[in-house]
Predict the 3D structure of the following.
Amino acid sequence: MLQSRTHNCGELRIANAGEKVKIVGWMENVREVSASLAFVVVRDFYGTTQVVADTEALVKSFREINKESTILVEGVVRERSSKNPQQTTGDIEVVPEKLEVLGRCRYNELPFQINHSREADEATRLKYRYLDLRNPEVKNNIILRCNVVSALRKSMTDHGFLEITTPILTASSPEGARDYLVPARNHPGKFYALPQAPQQFKQILMTSGFDRYFQIAPCFRDEDARADRSPGEFYQLDMEMAFAGQDDVFSVLEDVLPPIFAQYGIYNTASAAPFKRIGFNESMELYGSDKPDLRIGLTLRDFTEIGASCGFGPFEGSIVKAVVVPEFTQTRKFIDQLCTDVEVQTGEKTFWFRLDENGELVGGISKFLAEKKDAVIAALDLKPGCFVGLAAGKKLTALKTAGVLRKMLGNSVEGLMDREKYEFCWIVDFPMYEMGEESGELEFCHNPFSMPNGGLEVLNKAESGEVDPLTITAFQYDLVCNGVELSSGAVRNHDPEIMVKAFELVGLGEAEVMAKFPAMYNAFCYGAPPHAGIAPGVDRMVMLLAGEDSIREVIPFPMNKNAQDVMMNAPSEVEDKQLKELHIKLVSE
RNA sequence: GGCCCAGUAGUUCAGUUGGUUAGAACGCCAGCCUGUCACGCUGGAGGUCGACGGUUCGAGCCCGUUCUGGGUCGCCA
């Protein structure tokens, strides 16, 4: 039977030469140099070690073992006669005295080559995730995730926060995302729901007197996936503070995150406290996004006045926003690709023209602007060599489209961004209400439980018509880093009176508050502390730190886009008996 | 649910204007090779071109439908 290894595959050095050792691991590769000389690479979690087979019999033994089998090699460490300085174990090799196969790999051909698994088809990678994870490049992201989570825990604990777990089986919440439901066996017709976030529990903890709470919390939302959004489940660094406001929350995260980003990220600088604060409206005007990448040195310009009257059809009656890139040298092909890419992402057309080196308006829609050349140059402050990208539509559409244009230009044109850093910012002063596009009535913009800026007074004024409710802002904030929305948070509305008033403005009242959030509302009626919190997404943070574009690269066992686990075959059908116990009858379509 | 892109050997891809027996690299198998480390050299096996239908003398290529995967919009308080 196997006795423990004496060393792992990453630790043997020249100083170990002469020692008798026992190593175990996966047989990664065999390089046969002759019938009586071969080099075998053994890999474990820690690294790789070279084993040398220098007799015909040994070469034959290794030959009979399929790659990726697990083996045990007992032997003597020897200095290599030709060293490899690129490997930490490159000075030595193990000369085997005993070889044992511990776990045979039955297949001589794998679904993909381990060290190239990242190039393989994603569906195949996910199906054989256990092989994919053998690839050090894949595995290292998971290790990074462990280290980051561990560092976050330590820092939060050091800041006086208690980690408290909250229920996974809980009640369905009527608003927000679609719930995952779990049928209750002992309560026919009733369901538990998996929490979309521990939101209500953490606020209730505040009313119970816990001063500083956090949790690496699993959250479940039955919504469609994106490259940066895992379907089904994800993790948040969920936190809440009692007797605290926006600045208190900001200063905790400004203290916790930058050192962790600088230590574990691919870039080793992160913005220092305090992070830049940008109002929601200002962010939309300047960057065309509520999650701006501040590393990109471009801001949007307004071009409505000239655009709307220049005779170019798509601009008539529209708001027009411009992105100006100085000293632009890209080709026409690049510009066409850019416009196509923006349209794919936004569904909106984009337009362009240039001011060439001779000071002439050329390309794109320039002929519509020729008559107003001087006004165009003045309005956009153009210099020869400038490229101007344009987006038009209703105000929000024009801003968002121009925002995508800005981001793509920043990412693809050399010299427009200082990429090698983490640039945080807070987006603050989100509107409390918005006009529903379908209903045409006033609705909550984000969650209804943020504290309105101005409290009861401003809500009363809105009710009496003194204040336009659309101008009321909430103590609601987002944390953004390099164009990625890491987190949403808020100062909560802990006052039942203000809460009811906030609901009354959208045509609801105490009955609805109590019906939708009974536990939290009742708890607030017994003396609640003012409190505030936030919940940065762990997966998103690790993605940024690892420099990955797909969230699946930082999740150990990710689901595919359609919320299926193709390795475990989930979701799957269940036995009739199980359904019967749960009082469920399947209806065929 | 809408839109965009992709699907050819185990893997990653190429495949010209529709025209003979569909190619390459890596991997796999066999042989050679005594210091490799992305070992090298020689040879070999391996294909329902996602599926179905259509156009055509002839389809990997053109058209239609459909399936699968990814991206995106909707959605994600």
